[in-house]
Amino acid sequence: FYHPVLMKLRGIPPLQTFAPLKSILPCDFHLLNLRSIQSQQQDPHSPSPYTAMILHRLALDCGFEAQNLGFNCTTTQGQLSVSGLFKNLDLQLLQPMSLTLMHAGTPLANDSTISLDPMEISAFKLKLR
Asked: Which InterPro entries has this protein been placed in (predicted)?
Protein backbone atom coordinates (compact mmCIF):
# COMPACT_ATOMS: atom_id res chain seq x y z
CA PHE A 1 0.00 0.00 0.00
CA TYR A 2 2.76 2.49 0.82
CA HIS A 3 5.25 1.48 -1.86
CA PRO A 4 6.49 4.65 -3.65
CA VAL A 5 5.42 3.40 -7.10
CA LEU A 6 1.89 2.63 -5.90
CA MET A 7 1.70 5.96 -4.10
CA LYS A 8 2.61 7.79 -7.32
CA LEU A 9 0.08 5.81 -9.36
CA ARG A 10 -2.67 6.49 -6.83
CA GLY A 11 -1.80 10.20 -6.57
CA ILE A 12 -0.80 9.99 -2.91
CA PRO A 13 1.80 12.63 -2.01
CA PRO A 14 5.14 11.21 -0.77
CA LEU A 15 5.85 11.22 2.93
CA GLN A 16 7.92 14.12 4.19
CA THR A 17 11.37 13.53 5.61
CA PHE A 18 11.72 13.95 9.36
CA ALA A 19 15.28 14.80 10.41
CA PRO A 20 15.22 16.06 14.02
CA LEU A 21 18.97 15.95 14.74
CA LYS A 22 21.12 19.08 14.49
CA SER A 23 24.13 17.10 13.33
CA ILE A 24 25.33 13.54 13.02
CA LEU A 25 26.04 11.55 16.16
CA PRO A 26 29.63 10.63 17.05
CA CYS A 27 30.65 7.53 15.10
CA ASP A 28 30.53 5.30 18.18
CA PHE A 29 26.87 6.13 18.93
CA HIS A 30 23.93 4.56 17.12
CA LEU A 31 20.38 5.83 17.52
CA LEU A 32 18.43 2.57 17.68
CA ASN A 33 14.98 4.07 18.12
CA LEU A 34 13.31 7.45 18.49
CA ARG A 35 9.56 7.13 18.90
CA SER A 36 6.61 8.52 20.76
CA ILE A 37 5.50 6.83 23.96
CA GLN A 38 1.86 5.83 24.21
CA SER A 39 -0.19 8.26 26.25
CA GLN A 40 -1.06 7.22 29.80
CA GLN A 41 -4.29 9.22 29.62
CA GLN A 42 -7.68 7.57 29.42
CA ASP A 43 -7.78 7.84 25.62
CA PRO A 44 -4.94 5.63 24.31
CA HIS A 45 -5.19 7.34 20.91
CA SER A 46 -4.43 10.82 22.23
CA PRO A 47 -0.91 12.06 21.51
CA SER A 48 1.74 11.85 24.18
CA PRO A 49 4.23 14.63 24.87
CA TYR A 50 6.94 12.04 25.60
CA THR A 51 9.51 10.45 23.32
CA ALA A 52 11.57 7.31 23.84
CA MET A 53 15.20 7.43 22.71
CA ILE A 54 17.26 4.25 22.68
CA LEU A 55 21.01 4.61 22.12
CA HIS A 56 23.75 2.05 21.56
CA ARG A 57 27.41 2.86 21.99
CA LEU A 58 29.57 0.79 19.71
CA ALA A 59 33.03 -0.45 20.62
CA LEU A 60 35.07 1.05 17.80
CA ASP A 61 38.83 1.05 17.57
CA CYS A 62 39.64 4.46 16.17
CA GLY A 63 43.26 3.47 15.59
CA PHE A 64 42.33 2.57 12.03
CA GLU A 65 42.33 6.21 10.90
CA ALA A 66 46.11 6.37 11.40
CA GLN A 67 46.47 3.77 8.67
CA ASN A 68 44.44 5.97 6.27
CA LEU A 69 41.91 3.28 5.41
CA GLY A 70 39.21 5.83 4.67
CA PHE A 71 37.65 5.38 8.09
CA ASN A 72 37.46 8.75 9.82
CA CYS A 73 36.17 8.24 13.33
CA THR A 74 35.79 10.90 15.98
CA THR A 75 34.37 9.89 19.33
CA THR A 76 33.40 11.68 22.49
CA GLN A 77 34.63 8.85 24.72
CA GLY A 78 31.04 7.82 25.45
CA GLN A 79 29.81 11.29 26.39
CA LEU A 80 26.75 12.80 24.67
CA SER A 81 24.93 16.05 25.37
CA VAL A 82 21.26 15.39 24.66
CA SER A 83 20.14 19.02 25.12
CA GLY A 84 21.97 20.11 21.95
CA LEU A 85 21.04 17.05 19.92
CA PHE A 86 17.72 18.17 18.41
CA LYS A 87 17.10 21.11 16.11
CA ASN A 88 14.17 23.43 16.79
CA LEU A 89 13.23 21.42 19.88
CA ASP A 90 13.94 22.21 23.53
CA LEU A 91 14.59 19.38 25.95
CA GLN A 92 12.26 19.59 28.96
CA LEU A 93 12.78 16.13 30.45
CA LEU A 94 15.68 13.68 30.35
CA GLN A 95 14.91 10.51 32.31
CA PRO A 96 16.77 7.19 32.17
CA MET A 97 14.43 4.24 31.58
CA SER A 98 14.68 0.48 31.45
CA LEU A 99 14.99 -0.93 27.92
CA THR A 100 11.35 -1.99 28.08
CA LEU A 101 10.40 1.62 29.03
CA MET A 102 8.40 0.20 31.94
CA HIS A 103 10.67 1.36 34.79
CA ALA A 104 11.84 4.94 35.22
CA GLY A 105 15.03 6.18 36.80
CA THR A 106 15.63 9.53 38.48
CA PRO A 107 15.28 12.41 35.98
CA LEU A 108 18.54 14.14 35.05
CA ALA A 109 19.13 17.85 34.62
CA ASN A 110 18.15 18.94 31.10
CA ASP A 111 21.71 20.04 30.33
CA SER A 112 23.24 16.76 31.56
CA THR A 113 25.75 14.83 29.51
CA ILE A 114 24.93 11.15 29.38
CA SER A 115 27.69 8.56 29.48
CA LEU A 116 27.59 5.11 27.89
CA ASP A 117 30.22 2.39 28.10
CA PRO A 118 31.27 0.53 24.93
CA MET A 119 28.55 -1.90 23.75
CA GLU A 120 26.04 -0.44 26.23
CA ILE A 121 22.42 0.13 25.22
CA SER A 122 20.43 2.73 27.18
CA ALA A 123 16.90 4.06 26.97
CA PHE A 124 15.71 7.56 27.89
CA LYS A 125 12.36 9.25 28.19
CA LEU A 126 12.40 12.74 26.68
CA LYS A 127 9.96 15.58 26.62
CA LEU A 128 10.70 17.84 23.69
CA ARG A 129 8.95 21.09 22.89
From this structure: Gal_mutarotase_sf_dom (IPR011013)
